Structures
1.
Amino acid sequence: MTFPLPDECITNILDHIHYHDLSTLHCALLINRRWCTEATSLLWRQPFNVLGRIDSDHAINLVPTQRRRLLCGYRYVKLVDSYLPFLSEKTRSAFGIRLNQTNRSPTFDYPKLLRELDLSDLQTAAHYWCEAHHPISETKDGHNNNDPGKTEYRSLADELCKLFLDRCERFDFLCFNEKEPNKYQLPQLQEWYPNLYRFTPSPKCVTRLNGLVIGPTLLEQLYSTGILKHSTNVECLRIEGFCKPADYLQSFIESQRKLRKLTIDGFWVTKLQTVLPALNSQHSLTYIEFYRCWLNDIALLGNYSICQNIETLRIISCRRNLNGQYFSFANCHFSRLKRLDFIGIKYDYRAHTSWVGTWGSPPIEELSILLRRAAGTLQEVNLGLWITDIESVLPTLMKYCMNVTRFSATLTRAEDILILLHSLRGFTQVTELSISSLNVLSTQDVLSVYSSYRAKNMISVPSHIRKLSIDTEWTSIREPLRWLLKHCEAKLNVISWICMMGDVKQSLKIIKDYSMRIGRIVQKPHVTGNPAFPDLVRVEVKLCEEEKNVGKEETVLARHFL
């Protein structure tokens, strides 16, 4: 005789199953009513993340880009079909929708189960559905003669957004990304965001919201309609694209009670003085990222006490006005800083009547000040350096930051990599090393530098490195990977790199020549804006201490590749 598990046990078991593990969750649907209900809530909490689910389902054999798009389209059409019964009859008539017997009476209230929503995913789903039901006809010259889907998908996305905001009990995460809605690289998609003035979302759906990505237009709409007055528990906030000072933005930040992670993106025009004062009341804030902002404004962070609580500071692709006033981080006292990212600085100067910008390394003097201010607590450093800056930065890093165990450098030439390896020999506490590149390096560049530096003994990976990541988008990773491992003094535990999908098998053979201790192998798609590399993947190999420790499943997986 068997006894049913208590509801708490079922909930705890399914909580350990990621909602991307579709096979396990679908098996749970068949156990009994209680298991089915709990598994359904997980399956439908983030249904629009179709691309992530496809990559999870094909973890061993990643699907090429074109094939992934076809799978996305098929799944998005089926997904939208599941929500059609919940639309009003008037809305269905406007789109010419007729329900069949299979979807006339859904078993569950699917909109009510939604917890995470990204507008770009919703827009893409509406586009695929309209394209499937209204095929595009083209004239002889290749132009669209009649494309109803192009004009209807935004209306359908509006109706679906209204449905979710009206019927969902609560949202955990909302992404209203206005700047980059077309992450699936579909040329037909245009800029779209819902007009929230047309309907009033239920305030209770955002009461427990803990993740929010939003731009100026929708934030103003939400604030004007009073919805955000009920959302005071946001933990992770990303604000982007503000081109003018907004008092409601400062008020919204000040109203948060649990904010711990903040990303500020695209403040080219707006002065950060309108935002930074609001951070003084955020005592739980430990992570702050500035992306595409002015360095002159970021330095003002030292005028506020909040910098003393920051544990992670990221300065990515920011700008410095060479014609403007001098700035300094001398007033910034980061007494708890554990991670510092300083990558991709653009130097702008006025030439005649226009602005000219060049990318370069972070200001060495200001970088040294930051390193000294964070001395004693800094554990991870990720820098974008040029060849002339490596030798000047590393001594400061070794002098003041003796607790750093993870180091990442974004370089510009193959020669930089060899000099970096040579310079790290005295930095014995570093166990994780990541090498990136701003440019695509060819195999010829690497091999020519390799031959010139071989006699100087500057090409070996230091013995204290345990994890090596090669994030450079080489046209062929095999030869650079081979000479890095051939002269590797370290006993590596983890090796990861980026390569073309067709080079995975050959790259793994190089790993096998370096070590027979291959354990777990993980592949993930690597998204890049370079159209020349549409099918890049990141491969991570975990090496076991002894061959006998390799698990049975891991051995089978390794044999599958090798």
2.
Amino acid sequence: MTLVYIFLLVIAVFVIMSFVSLRKIQKQNNQYNYNGISDDRYYELKYKLQFITSVGVIVIAVAGFFGVDKYENFVASFQKKTDSLDTKIKLFDQKIKSLDSNIVKYDTRINAYDIFLRKMDLSKVKFSKEMLASNKGLLALKDTINNIKKRNVLDKSFYVIDNLQISNYENNATAEINKKFYFRDMTTIIGDQLPIFFQKPVVFVIPQSSADISLIEVTNEYIIVDYGMFQHNGNKEVPKSFAFGLLIARKSE
């Protein structure tokens, strides 16, 4: 389309130059009617002017025939495709930004999980230390029993009670704070009933959980126990009860 405009401009320049030349010839011959001029240059310029005008008309007709409109339609279609491409690029940029945001969220979650796992490791270490302390307590209890045997304070009749439970009153509002256990209701680990104690027996608590079980009272008929501090061992669920055992020794009559 630009070339057509340039070509038409050139034709217009030639027409103007020819018209100016005709005016000069007219003044020289002092004539005002172009058809009456006898100068050959006048006719030559006139024919050139007519030729150029005819060529211009042909060029315009050819340009219109071969698709000036098609060219404009092509430009419009190309512009539309370019706009569509810009829209897709913007959507792609938005997806990239959304992906970056999700990556940041995942990094935050990973950091939170890492912190949680570190706390779990610390809880495991703490629990291992507590179990080691419990084992040391059991060894100390064994030494105490051996010393008692050597002194003949007991009649060397021992009873081991397993899997007694005390409810966690922090998790159960109806649980007893100090729970009473009767000897007549207990059975040993081999299924035997406890004998009747005429004197208050010697009772030791065997830890079977992370809670600190302690004896509040001991009689010849029952014991009263309570618990102190306990650890969750890295578990979010609070235990409903705590297990423990007893080592009972009857005194000599």
3.
Amino acid sequence: MSGGVAASLRRIFVANQHHRLLIVSTCLIPKNHRAFSMQYKDTEKPAHPFDYVNKNYNFFRHYYLGGHYTLANIHDNTLFFHVESNFGVRRSDFVKRLANHIGFLPISKPDMDRMHFVDETGTINTRQFHNDYCLPRDYMPIPEEWHLNPNHYGSVRLLRPLLQTMTYQLRMGLSHMLSTGQGIVMDRSYWSYYPILNILRDFGFISQD
């Protein structure tokens, strides 16, 4: 994707093989309207990317430890793509294919159980252990179960770790984009659950706070 084409994108509408619609949004407002092809790749590598995985970027590192200025890595293809869709349309596969075509980094949907309930060895799931011995009102659902039967108690127990997980996903994606200059394609995000939160608030499942 060339710089002029990337800067002009606002929304891309792509229908997959099941004829369901996927919407890809960017954060920029178009200045020009041009045709483009996903088959064309024009990747740009920053001259001096910051190693955000092993180092913390702070005031002292910026001014006293090498003077690394991350804004120098930002260019026309430093973009944020957010892919949203309904269930069962192979959104995750589309995110990987799109990121590969345009030379961006795919940010997959995080595993809530792995981040909050499964230990480092991957053998103990505290959520499953809790559900095996708890009262029905204290049951902690997974997102698929909650969509089938939303209720007051399940909403609170699900949404808090879910939003924490999505916040971590967004923070890691933005850290990569701002530290290296490479654009990212995110599989859903923190904002995906705002409609659900608004509906729960309207029906009294959660408070205004």
